[in-house]
């Protein structure tokens, strides 16, 4: 190893050391997680509107509520918690409006957990728990494959040797998964990236390494070999 190559390697190691990467990771997380939430909410609603135009939604909830359910998918453990949060938020909004108008609150309309689930599935936001078959009566992937082949619920039940009612419970999940797959999970992934820090996973360290390499090699001969 000649002197210039040694110098380049030392600079590269120093520039891309663990302490430097950690600092860049912290900076990246701060930049992404401190995004304008109003802009995020607006984009989520745009995704919801695009999906409503493309697919038949199964509830009469408006886009704002769908957007809130999408956010709830990543904030709460289950649909019951999301439904409860929706009611609380609506009650708070209505209490504020009635207080300003000088009227009494009649209580916010209840959004049932089943409705939340339907809306969540409309948005391709399947939870892993949705795919967990009770008592392991059959393998979910087998049902998904049969559904992809165009089999009916009865035909799937015959092939899996289970009751059609049991298959029906998971058939919609399989259809949602397949529909999402046909779009390369585009909508699901965008909602996830908007509403979580998933987009920074696996990218901040690579960016830091690239930045370090660029700084290390700046103004040096490009034909130097390590």
From TrEMBL:
Residues 216-226 have a biased composition (Acidic residues). Residues 1-12, 21-38, 202-212 have a biased composition (Basic and acidic residues). It comes from the Archaea. Residues 1-38, 88-109, 202-226 are annotated as: Disordered. This is Conditioned medium-induced protein 4. It comes from Halorubrum kocurii JCM 14978. The lineage of its organism: Archaea, Methanobacteriati, Methanobacteriota, Stenosarchaea group, Halobacteria.
């Amino acid at each position: 190893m000649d002197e210039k190559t040694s110098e380049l390697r030392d600079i590269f190691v120093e520039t891309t050391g663990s302490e430097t990467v950690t600092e860049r990771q912290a900076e990246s997380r701060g930049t992404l997680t401190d995004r304008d939430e109003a802009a995020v909410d607006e984009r989520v609603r745009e995704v919801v509107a695009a999906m409503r135009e493309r697919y038949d939604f199964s509830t009469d909830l408006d886009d704002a509520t769908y957007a809130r359910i999408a956010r709830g998918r990543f904030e709460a453990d289950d649909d019951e918690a999301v439904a409860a949060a929706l009611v609380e938020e609506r009650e708070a909004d209505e209490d504020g409006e009635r207080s300003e108008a000088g009227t009494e609150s009649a209580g916010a309309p209840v959004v049932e957990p089943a409705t939340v689930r339907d809306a969540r599935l409309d948005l391709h936001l399947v939870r892993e728990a949705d795919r967990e078959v009770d008592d392991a009566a059959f393998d979910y992937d087998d049902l998904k494959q049969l559904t992809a082949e165009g089999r009916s619920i009865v035909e799937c039940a015959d092939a899996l040797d289970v009751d059609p009612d049991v298959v029906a419970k998971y058939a919609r999940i399989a259809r949602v998964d397949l529909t999402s797959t046909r779009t390369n999970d585009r909508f699901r992934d965008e909602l996830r990236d908007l509403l979580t820090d998933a987009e920074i996973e696996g990218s901040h360290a690579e960016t830091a390494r690239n930045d370090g390499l660029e700084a290390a090699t700046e103004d040096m001969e490009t034909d130097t070999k390590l």
